[in-house]
Amino acid sequence: xxxxxxxxxxxxxxxxxxxxxxxxxxxxxxxxxxxxxxxxxxxxxxxxxxxxxxxxxxxxxxxxxxxxxxxxxxxxxxxxxxxxxxxxxxxxxxxxxxxxxxxxxxxxxxxxxxxxxxxxxxxxxxxxxxxxxxxxxxxxxxxxxxxxxxxxxxxxxxxxxxxxxxxxxxxxxxxxxxxxxxxxxxxxxxxxxxxxxxxxxxxxxxxxxxxxxxxxxxxxxxxxxxxxxxxxxxxxxxxxxxxxxxxxxxxxxxxxxxxxxxxxxxxxxxxxxxxxxxxxxxxxxxxxxxxxxxxxxxxxxxxxxxxxxxxxxxxxxxxxxxxxxxxxxxxxxxxxxxxxxxxxxxxxxxxxxxxxxxxxxxxxxxxxxxxxxxxxxxxxxxxxxxxxxxxxxxxxxxxxxxxxxxxxxxxxx
Length: 413
What we know:
With about 425 residues, the chain is an alpha+beta fold. Helices cover about 40% and strands about 15% of the residues. The chain has 14 helices and 12 strands.
């Protein structure tokens, strides 16, 4: 795994982040090692501090690449941010589990005896530098580049023909040099596979072709995508288009070798069960709506008669709540109208946020633990889909709650 990034060409045009000066990353990594050495970090468990620190650092890069932190619902970057957030946090989970797995081998000596903390810590020092400085820097730069080029894919749709452009210096990779000056229609399938970045710290870009330009010849295209030496081809990991695939870090990355098929709140993130949450915590209460007429009046006032209201979620997305969402809640046989007035609170101030990529969509689940029952708001591609309580009769539906707490943990209060 250490050589996966190869020669990542660290002298790039992208402004470098001082990863080595990041106290949050370093402190979180130290805690991961201590928990591993003490036996506190169990198999398949994610070190939450390291997971959170890594995710937050890479999300800084995503926001840099997208150009801001928040976008209105009709801006494609709001949609891209939702997808990239799920991808970055899933990657960070995989990286955290990979760290645990790799450093397990340093815990004992040749006789199988547990090494002292100091000996263990010193034995992993070199690899720690690689993962938390060199590799994290490359991952950070990759997140910026993929985010930038994802946006560029959408802004370039106003042009008929596009041109591949390298920096043109002696550091351009042979695989990329073959594409330099290639001109094709924006609808050509080539762009679905060969959209920069095409390697770690790739500096290539796409520009509008000059007015009146014609497509490159079929012979030129075949020669570009079918090099005589297979080693000169673009690595399979980098083939794709972040603007279409909405992915920065792909499933083929070696970190993913340690990832369970589905992550679980208790088993993998070591979060307390819902039962324990209700036993041990002082939870928020709210005053529900008395009837369906009151719920309808409340919704009309919230939307100012327009039928929709937008809410900025805690994770920085513009979420659309429309009349269909409200009508379903008001008409539902389980009297969901009673807590319709909590939709904004759950999204703005949740206790947990979970994300899952299913059938090409990002489904996000916002959970808030009120003093009687948990309330869930489900979001599909930044549009509110449902609001409901996790209850079964007069009790909390613990089975349903467990099922809702699966996937990629975006936030935990």
